[in-house]
Specification:
Blueprint: H1 2-8, E1 14-16, H2 25-33, E2 39-41, H3 47-60, E3 66-70, H4 76-85, E4 90-94, H5 102-108, E5 112-116, H6 120-128, E6 133-137, E7 143-144, H7 150-161, E8 167-170, H8 176-184, E9 189-192, H9 206-214, E10 220-222, E11 235-238, H10 241-258, H11 264-283, H12 308-327
Parallel strand pairs: 1-9, 2-3, 3-4, 4-5, 5-6, 6-8, 8-9
Antiparallel strand pairs: 7-11, 10-11
Length: 328
């Protein structure tokens, strides 16, 4: 973990998962203040909004934090420029392979680039293209997910690339013993999102937090893709009526494709904007029935609302105990 912490500039190599509407200035600053590494979720933000959010986060903490940018954002290059102007030290690119010129643009600002690697072949390709670190995220995670479990991806990718760049493991991690296990396998650190949603510092609506506290692992289910021509990345969220609304939205967008009213890229953006709106309804407005309550399968390990520092301390205590037992 010392390697991951040195790379991030934090006390502990625990990255915050970038959760739209949840990973905003308050939670991100609190994470970094607690010795972990907060990551601001840009999501569908405008350039101006991201600029304000970075400035507001810097006003709350002097410690390092990162910014997560979605590769399909139409203003990606302008968002990268804002991160550079605001001297953001780490940029996380999510949602697919980095578009041409984006890695170079981030590195030109002096920032480190972190990318998601959902397969070994992509991990190797990203390293060749110059990324500074990788996140290996399994299907147990909340929000957008891939098809392979965390444990399998970690076994496949860590032995091959962990010596070349720092690798952070994510998806379904809720206790320190799991953190210790992945460190033992060669990870430089981990990324957690679901575990931090019910932190006292999280601005998520009380109803959103209560949904997490009540839920079990099996309540966090992946969305279904309806039309093979519309490659919708599955999203893991708590089962509710919102899932059915998303199915209806897919039908609507697929119909627009059939009629030639939208091109594929526009159809994809419509789906992304739908998710952003559905997530906002749940996180901010508290509509946990019709909004999207994105959660990973580790949601069953979220049992109460508590300060972020207490969550970090518990995780690190569990990890230390587990590693001491192995060394004995």
């Amino acid at each position: 973990m010392a390697r991951g912490a040195a790379f991030l500039g934090s006390e502990w190599a625990i990255m915050g998962g970038a959760m739209s509407w949840v990973s905003e200035r308050n939670l991100v600053a609190a994470m970094s203040e607690a010795g972990a590494f907060g990551v601001l979720a840009c999501g569908a933000m405008t350039v101006e909004l991201l600029d304000r959010e970075i400035a507001a986060t810097k006003a709350l903490t002097q410690r390092p934090f990162g910014v997560n940018l979605i590769t399909m954002h139409p203003d990606l290059m302008a968002l990268i420029e804002v991160c550079g102007r605001r001297r953001v030290g780490h940029v996380v690119l999510a949602g697919g392979l980095p578009p041409k010129g984006s890695l170079e643009a981030i590195k030109a600002t002096g920032a480190k680039v972190i990318c998601f690697a959902p397969a070994l072949s992509l991990a190797k390709k990203l390293i060749r293209s110059g990324v500074d670190a990788l996140v290996v995220e399994g299907m147990e995670a909340g929000g957008h997910i891939g098809p392979v479990s965390t444990s399998v991806l970690a076994q496949e990718i860590l032995p091959e690339v962990a010596e070349q760049v720092p690798v952070f493991v994510a998806g379904g991690i809720g206790r320190g013993e799991a953190i210790a296990g992945y460190l033992d396998m060669g990870a430089a650190g981990v990324q957690l999102g679901t575990r931090f949603v019910c932190a006292t510092e999280s601005i998520a609506h009380p109803k959103f937090k209560q949904a997490f506290i009540r839920a079990s692992a099996r309540d966090a289910v992946a969305s279904v893709q309806l039309d093979p021509r519309l490659p919708v990345i599955p999203v893991r969220a708590l089962k509710n009526a919102g899932g059915e609304l998303f199915t209806a939205k897919q039908r609507e967008v697929a119909g627009h494709l059939d009629e030639g009213r939208v091109v594929m890229s526009e159809a994809q953006l419509q789906i992304e904007h739908y998710w952003a709106g559905a997530l906002r309804r749940a996180v901010i407005d508290g509509d946990v029935e019709h909004g999207s309550v994105m959660a990973g399968q580790s949601v069953g390990m979220v049992t109460k609302e508590e300060p972020l520092a207490a969550i970090i301390a518990e995780l690190m205590g569990q990890a230390a105990t587990a590693l001491e037992r192995r060394a004995a």
